[in-house]
Design brief:
Length: about 260
């Protein structure tokens, strides 16, 4: 029973912090330092990341189906044979590919070099404050009406690469950058969410390489269910905050949390 509760708690936290702009890696550092939470192991990380990826895919299933359908029609008809809607979806897919490159390159090159940051509580606290300030100021931008272009998508992808640092939120930087560039709020949310899919699935693949999966079915199922449900709810909350012009309110948690950690760290 204790192991089941631990698995549910881990899945709950992972799902919530994966999509809300509060940094899942930062909370992992805090949990390990102050709550003496041990490394959950490769299997639990794979399971919970897979659950959050599934949450995104189900939440965005219609947009994903549109994009994949447009890609299939592109291969059959060529770009000239597509209607305006399909061309928009094909262009979006191309922008997602381009925007995913910076995070992939940075992850491969510097992943081992930043491992020491996962034991640096003061550094993580500082990055939570940085994320909070970024979320606050970008969230205060007015309703954007600009279309998502390749240059803007590239900048959003570049911002995502910084999320490898504990305390820096991927959703905070990707959504916030989109808002700062004047992108339509719903489009900024959708692009950030779609952009998270290759990153999360990439994390699953990376963890699977050379990893040995083990653990009880009941415990892993509990972690998966908790991560999926909390992840889906977090996505819904993120959508309402972005479209409802309340994205900046996450700063009211991030900045005080970072300050407190600096004081007691």
């Amino acid at each position: 029973m204790i192991e089941l509760l631990k698995a549910c708690a881990y899945g709950l936290v992972q799902g919530l912090t994966e999509f809300l702009p509060v940094s899942s890696s930062g909370h992992l550092v805090i949990a390990k330092h102050y709550l003496a939470v041990e490394d959950v192991g490769i299997t639990m990380e794979v399971i919970t990341h897979a659950a959050t990826a599934l949450a995104v895919i189900i939440y965005m299933r219609r947009r994903i189906a549109d994009i994949l359908g447009a890609a299939v029609r592109l291969m059959r008809r060529g770009y000239g044979g597509l209607d305006e809607s399909d061309r928009g979806d094909v262009n979006l897919l191309a922008m997602l590919v381009v925007a995913s490159i910076p995070a992939a390159v940075v992850g491969i090159i510097v992943r081992d070099r930043v491992e020491g940051l996962f034991s640096d509580v003061s550094g993580t606290a500082g990055m939570l404050i940085v994320t909070g300030l970024f979320v606050y100021f970008t969230g205060r931008f007015g309703r954007g009406e600009k279309a998502l272009t390749a240059p803007r998508a590239s900048l959003i992808g570049l911002a995502q690469a910084f999320a490898i640092i504990p305390g820096i939120s991927r959703s905070g930087l990707t959504v916030g950058t989109g808002l700062a560039l004047g992108t339509d709020r719903k489009k900024a949310f959708e692009f950030a969410l779609l952009l998270s899919i290759p990153v999360v699935l990439g994390a699953v693949a990376f963890e699977l390489v050379g990893g040995r999966l083990e653990g009880g079915a009941a415990v892993l199922s509990a972690a998966f269910a908790a991560a999926f449900v909390s992840g889906y709810l977090a996505i819904s909350l993120l959508f309402r905050s972005v479209v409802g012009n309340r994205f900046h309110m996450f700063a009211y948690y991030l900045i005080p949390a970072g300050i407190v950690l600096l004081i007691i760290g």
